[in-house]
């Protein structure tokens, strides 16, 4: 018997031919311009000790022992969700095992048959997967284009049944471009058209809104049906939560399969989250300022070096230089890595063909010298190719 079916071998061969084969890389100690650890909390040894001390005060089992609906809903879950709803100014919070689980659970269960989902064309794969698992019709709108969204809203409103609901989906900071929609205008558009707005806050959680999220920073909490916040980036931990009404939480507990049919997070994970959030409340403001300084300095350096045109416009910690072609961007990333910098190539089909890129993730701990050095290297490598 063949070790792999023929159709699967063919798909792998196509990836090889397109120079798009994925593999699991090892973390190799290079200067970090790649991880989502924006404030460096995973590097903070005090937090690890604080989590251990927390569990000494409130002893817990090593594992969750079951799903949250059976034996896994230990007391720390309640403590965390109470904190989250207060901190993120929401009526309720429901913790999931990951951002992927949260998005799949929400979009596969909330929009119903006969409803409509309009989503930004660049939303995360987990949102798309959840939509595909559900029964609602879905259509994409042009990236951050409210005019295109409005046209689609008008068209579908005229054709839809009276009991049809419309859900509009976007991200506060897009993971592959680093840009943001006009959330105030988007929220107003949804309010005017009786639509339910859902915002994935994965890359804004813990950074914007004084350690909260982008919606909190803009004061739009009452205009958003649901927010997805994640803990594997700025918080340096694991898991995610859906913020919304108490009624929405009750619905998800009853119908979100990615919550119902999986083992809960272990107590030490929840303890780490509580400790990290408390650290952010006490000390995060300075680190957020340092991160913003590094973002501003990075953009200033691209201007001074004459390479700003390579980059997608972004005011976030995600800065992407377009280097068309999988082979080209992989080669350039490899050369930067040889110089000691961990920058990863983003290949097609993850992004559109011709829009392959180097994705620079900035952190509070990156130094001025590191930023200057890597951008000078990038400029020299680009000049060698043109």
Automatic annotation (TrEMBL):
InterPro entries linked to this entry: Aminotransferase_I/II_large, AON_synthase_class-II, PyrdxlP-dep_Trfase, PyrdxlP-dep_Trfase_major, PyrdxlP-dep_Trfase_small
Gene3D superfamilies in the cross-refs: Aspartate Aminotransferase, domain 1, Type I PLP-dependent aspartate aminotransferase-like (Major domain)
Domain Aminotransferase class I/classII large positions: 30-374
Gene Ontology molecular function terms on file: transaminase activity
UniProt superkingdom: Bacteria
Family: Belongs to the class-II pyridoxal-phosphate-dependent aminotransferase family. BioF subfamily.
Protein name: Aminotransferase class I/II-fold pyridoxal phosphate-dependent enzyme
Species: Flagellimonas iocasae
Lineage: Bacteria, Pseudomonadati, Bacteroidota, Flavobacteriia, Flavobacteriales
């Amino acid at each position: 018997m063949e070790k792999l079916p023929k159709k699967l071998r063919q798909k792998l061969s196509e990836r090889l031919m397109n120079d798009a084969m994925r593999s699991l890389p090892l973390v190799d100690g290079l200067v970090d311009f790649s991880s989502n650890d924006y404030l460096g909390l995973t590097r903070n040894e005090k937090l690890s000790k604080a989590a251990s001390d927390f569990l000494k005060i409130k002893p817990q089992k090593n594992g969750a022992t079951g799903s949250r609906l059976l034996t896994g809903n230990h007391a720390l879950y309640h403590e965390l969700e109470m904190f989250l709803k207060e901190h993120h100014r929401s009526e309720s919070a429901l913790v999931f095992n990951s951002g992927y689980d949260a998005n799949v659970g929400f979009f596969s269960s909330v929009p119903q048959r006969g409803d409509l989902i309009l989503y930004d064309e660049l939303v995360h794969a987990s949102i798309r997967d959840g939509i595909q698992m559900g029964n609602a019709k879905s259509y994409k709108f042009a990236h951050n284009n409210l005019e295109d969204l409005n046209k689609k809203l008008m068209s579908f409103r005229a054709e839809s049944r009276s009991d049809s609901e419309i859900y509009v989906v976007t991200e506060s900071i897009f993971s592959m471009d680093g840009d943001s929609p006009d959330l105030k205008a988007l929220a107003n558009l949804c309010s005017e058209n009786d639509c339910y707005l859902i915002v994935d806050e994965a890359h804004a959680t813990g950074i914007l809104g004084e350690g909260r999220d982008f919606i909190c920073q803009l004061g739009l909490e009452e205009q958003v049906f649901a927010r997805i916040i994640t803990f594997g980036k700025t918080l340096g931990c694991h898991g995610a939560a859906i913020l919304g009404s108490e009624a929405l939480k009750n619905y998800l507990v009853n119908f979100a399969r990615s919550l119902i049919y999986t083992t809960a997070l272990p107590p030490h994970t929840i303890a780490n989250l509580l400790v990290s959030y408390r650290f952010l409340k006490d000390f995060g403001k300075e680190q957020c300022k340092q991160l913003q300084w590094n973002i501003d300095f990075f953009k200033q350096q691209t201007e001074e070096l004459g390479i700003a045109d390579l980059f997608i416009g972004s005011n976030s910690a995600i800065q992407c230089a377009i280097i068309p072609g999988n082979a080209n961007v992989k080669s350039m990333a490899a050369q930067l890595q040889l110089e000691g910098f961990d920058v990863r190539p983003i290949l097609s089909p993850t992004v559109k063909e011709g829009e392959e890129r180097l994705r620079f993730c900035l952190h509070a701990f990156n130094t001025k010298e590191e930023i200057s050095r890597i951008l000078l290297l990038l400029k020299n490598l680009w000049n060698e190719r043109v």
